Amino acid sequence: MTTRRKTLSIIAAVSVMIASFAGCGGSNTATTTTTQAPAANADNAKAEDTAAPADTADTAAPAPANTDSGSKQTITVWAPEEVVEITQSKLDTWLAGQTDWNGKYSITVSAMGEGDATTQMLTDVEAGADVFGFAQDQLARLVAAGALSKPGGKFLENINNNNDAGSIGAVTLNGDVYAYPETSDNGYFLYYDKSVVSDPSTLEGIITQCAAAGKNIYFDLQSGWYDVAFFFGTGAQCYYNYDTEGNVIDCVCDYSSDKGLAAMKAMVETAKNKGKGYEQAPDGAASLFNPDGGTAGALVSGTWDYATVKGFLGDNFGASKLPTFTVDGKSYQMSGFGGFKLIGVKPQTDSDKLTFCHLVADYITSEEMQLVRFEEKGWGPSNKNAQASDEVKANEALAALAEQLVFCPGQGQYPNAYWDLTKAFGTDINSGMYADADDATLLAALESSIKAAK
């Protein structure tokens, strides 16, 4: 670990929690203008609008005194290039109204995609941005590197009260919240043709309805990303722990259990219906809804296929959460991975600056900002009020995904070996290898795969 990273780890331990406030990759070079709001009068400072560092958790820090020198500290924000302009513009307007702070700070938004931001922060925390976006699967590594200051007080209340359950889970590690949810829009759900599928509630029913119409439900059984819909649905789990250098520490996986067995049996039963209501989803499966010879009655996919599927189906377009499936008389809700974009705050030695950085993160992830990003760029909100807006609800894909993500944990980081093994495992199931296997054989296959994955 470099000296800088050691230093920031110490800072993180001291300022790990802000207490009482009452109120995937782009370029890393492009920068917009810097916010320079009018100076505020010190008489307008309100102590209740500030937050204290962890070592004074029960005391609100006073608002920063205004300076007459005109010198301002610059807060750097990293955001994907596609939203740099709107982020800078909205922060300019927001800061102008922050009379307790706009005389001391300015804000510069620079282009940096979530993946590059994580790499930069892990390389040198101190040199990184004060506020930055990242993908939820990098949370544990950033925490271990001391790159995140935990929100507390009113900031934490806002996170817990205003966002959906999946996104809150995505910012939580070992019971503690380390970041702010920004989106809730990456995952999969069910598209279906209403003229074929009248009841999308159960997988078995969908397969039967598709078969009756000479159609299929398309699902990617040969992908570890999709297969967790079954495994997580039965309550099984599989995840990896990493060190700050990106090395796997261990694998926690209980697939070789009654829960994993139930999931595998469901997958095997699904594969038995190949060509009879089910098919492996190929690349570009959304095109199979084409009324001119298309064979799709339903498809498990994500928001990226929304325009294509809706364009083909028109009035027969349907979208919903994933169905349930039944194994040995017990019903399970299909799950999956949830994908979320998060906003992190870097630890600071200056408590005023730390408080202000949390204010910035809180605003960037507010209902207002999430709706702006939805309207301008189509990003799906994690904020519940934003999700309930007429504009967002009118997007059937996002509405279905929001319903599904209630059942999905945030995606962690997985090594390439995991994806290779699960692809091979799903391919074997699809081929019919386990069509007549008994429970002992299925459990042995699961155990063998887990050992290989570890």
Can you give me a brief rundown of this structure?
The chain has 454 residues and is an alpha/beta fold. It has helices at residues 3-14, 81-96, 114-123, 139-144, 153-162, 165-170, 203-212, 224-231, 258-271, 306-313, 351-364, 367-377, 384-387, 390-393, 396-405, 416-430, 439-453, and strands spanning 31-34, 73-79, 105-111, 131-135, 172-173, 176-177, 180-181, 189-193, 216-219, 238-242, 248-253, 278-280, 296-301, 317-320, 324-327, 330-333, 341-345. It has a 6-stranded mixed beta sheet.
What features would you describe in this structure?
The protein starts with a helix and ends with a helix. The protein is an alpha/beta fold and 454 residues long. The strands form 5 sheets. The chain has a 6-stranded mixed sheet. A 5-stranded mixed sheet has the order 12-9-13-8-14, sandwiched between helices. It has a two-stranded antiparallel sheet with strand order 5-6. The longest helix has 16 residues, at 81-96. Helix 2 packs antiparallel against helix 12 (367-377) and helix 9 (258-271) crosses helix 17. It has 17 helices and 17 strands.
Task: Give the key terms.
five-stranded mixed β-sheet; disordered N terminus; single chain; 17% strand; alpha/beta; D-Maltodextrin-Binding Protein, domain 2; 17 helices
Using the coordinates shown, work out and report the CATH topology of the largest domain: D-Maltodextrin-Binding Protein, domain 2
Proportion in helices: 25-40%
Over the alpha carbons, how many angstroms does the gyration radius reach?
Answer: 24 Å
The number of E-state strands comes to 17
So how many helices?
17
CATH architecture of the largest domain: 3-Layer(aba) Sandwich
Strands of the biggest beta sheet: in what spatial order?
1-3-2-4-17-7
Poorly predicted runs are 1-62
What would you call the structural class?
alpha/beta
Strand content: 15-25%
Assembly state: single chain
- How many strands, which pairing sense, and closed or not: the largest β-sheet? 6 strands, mixed
User: What is the C-level CATH assignment of the largest domain?
Assistant: Alpha Beta
